[in-house]
Amino acid sequence: MRAWRPALVLAALSVVLAACGSGTSGTTTTASTAPSAGPWSFTDGSGKVITADRTPTRIIAHAGEAAALMSFGIKPVGIYADESVKTDANLKDLDLTGIEILGQEWGKIDVEKAAALRPDLIVGDWWPAEKAHSGLEEGVDEKSKKLAELAPVVGVSQGKSIVDLAKGYEDLARSLGAEVDSPGIAANRERFEQAVAAFKEATKAKPDLTVAAMSPADDKLYVANPEYAPELLDFQRWGMRVINPDTPDPGFPYWENLSWESADKYQPDLVLWDGRSFKPTSNAEWGRKQPTWFKVRAAKAGAVVAWPAYWLHTYGDFATELDKLTAAVKAADPAIGD
Amino acid sequence: MSSSAPVARRASALGPGLAALCVLLALVAFLSVTLGSRSIGLPEVLRALGGLDQDGSITSTVTLELRVPRTLLGVLVGAALGVAGAILQGVTRNPLADAGIMGVNSGAAVFVVIAITVLGVRGAEVYVWFAFAGAIAALVLVYAIASLGREGATPVKLALAGAAVTAGLVSVTSGIVMTDVDALNELRFWQVGSLAGRYAPILAGVAPFLVIALIASLGFGRALNGLALGDDMARGLGQRVTRTRTAAFAVVAVLAGAATAACGPIVFVGLVVPHLARFICGPDYRWILPYSMLLAPIVLLLADVLGRVVAAPDELQVGVVLGVLGAPAFVGIVRYGRLSEA
């Protein structure tokens, strides 16, 4: 009984919705003066096609996704971020006036405030490893998950490439009626292409250079698994030898967890340090604090550089970050880790 | 004569038993230095311990800077938690007493969280002092509340005050971490209870307190035997009940406070080991205290070594291992053992 009663209700509802849908689509065909009014559809990162009778205009978006939409001139009505919008890598330089801030820490969204905005679309990345959208993953506040009840949720997949991600948000912006070929956007893409070319050239000049993406923590050393970090897959595609950890945590495959006793398991020539926690003083600090951190020879030699971990969404940001990495590759010594 | 014979035999067996436990503890400590998430051959460990490895190789760093402090900390913290639990169970005549239900963990957690949010400090080596202060503050508060009223800090009032203070402090902690995810993340690391990530500075910081308090604690055997008969009987035997209880609490505050400060809340050791000791020694606290002092670090170190070996090159926190193994062990003691009331 308990299993099929909701199914029945759902079936009844869908009949009603279908009726509504056909009704409105009928009116739009006649009113051809408003081409962007709908119906609207977008293929979500999960593979599901999300449809609406009218093109959404009142959008609530997660931090980086909001920044991506704003780069195409689409201003969300509300934003939820994983940290203060003043420090968030995607948001800190943007003008957020007139946008309601619905959350400034991971897992906490003020859904009541969100409901008051009457959103017709929620935008958050799709995370294939967790099979959830940003802000609705396992472990967030149960109350936050109610955000998904306010409007359909769509997002581009944090899949195999940031280029796909950026392109996906361009497609989403276009579907929402944005102008995606303005000169500013074209300039960013140009800059991005140059940055990729320079990066490829730098890695090609040092074919033996290996890197590992790491995040040191008090109790353990975490080594990132490129398979679930699209930007690391991009780096690999462009000739950088990012080490694939051999036993990622089965429950949370973004990382392999190393005890500090095993900190020297991987010996890259250059350490890519989780950019969310990296400061210029970090390396010296951890060398002092963790007796085995400097057993990673690259760390001891100071060959560390911040890596834009899990936050890139636009060509512009990617270009800026790539340029820094290119400089680090040029300065790196491919013999340190051997 | 027939009634005193078993007691005499027991005492004559308990002395050598204590010596055997010392040997066992040394053995477990040796295991803790030689086994870990990194496999290091015995000769290399011995070379490092002998100071022969001056080359700064990772095997000598891991042995000398990671495993040796970790093992020593495990010995001291384990002994402190075991003895603190035994004393608390005796003083409060409550078989479920341990440092946790007297507010120690919650007090330490509140101070750590306040240090993170209000003072903005970070790092295990700073938390240790806040946690220490918090643990002692909580115990003092519990004891002060329980002491209100004419008859002083009776076991029942202590248990109630401990529960009340714990509840209050826990709600303060969750109130703060609800609004500050950064504090939550930091607290999460601290709150599991682990011997990992604690090195020489932390060991050197808490060791003097623990050593002095451990020595002092051994003097409470006779007094606890008296208290076990009930406050009135103890008074009748000429004991100053209030003074004994205050002194015992002071020692427990230092023991449990320093242990929790160094490693975070570690469960079950303080609760289960005194029962184990009582199971072996009978009701005489003059034996229960030293037995707890040796049994507890054996249990703690074994759990820690297990956590290091099963998940290599990753590690399980000792708090997790103890939780998983401790619960069934305690059920076993309750079911088959003689869970005495004091």
Automatic annotation (TrEMBL), chain B:
Pfam families for this protein: FecCD
SUPFAM superfamilies hit by this protein: ABC transporter involved in vitamin B12 uptake, BtuC
Transmembrane segments: none
InterPro entries, per the entry: ABC_BtuC-like, ABC_transptr_permease_BtuC
Cellular component terms per the entry's GO annotation: plasma membrane
GO molecular function per UniProt: transmembrane transporter activity
Tagged with keyword Transport: yes
The entry's keywords: Cell membrane, Membrane, Transmembrane, Transmembrane helix, Transport
Membrane topology of the entry: Multi-pass membrane protein
Cellular compartment(s): Cell membrane
One example of a Gene Ontology biological process annotation: siderophore-iron import into cell
Membrane found in the keyword field: yes
Family, similarity comment: Belongs to the binding-protein-dependent transport system permease family. FecCD subfamily.
Protein name: Iron chelate uptake ABC transporter family permease subunit
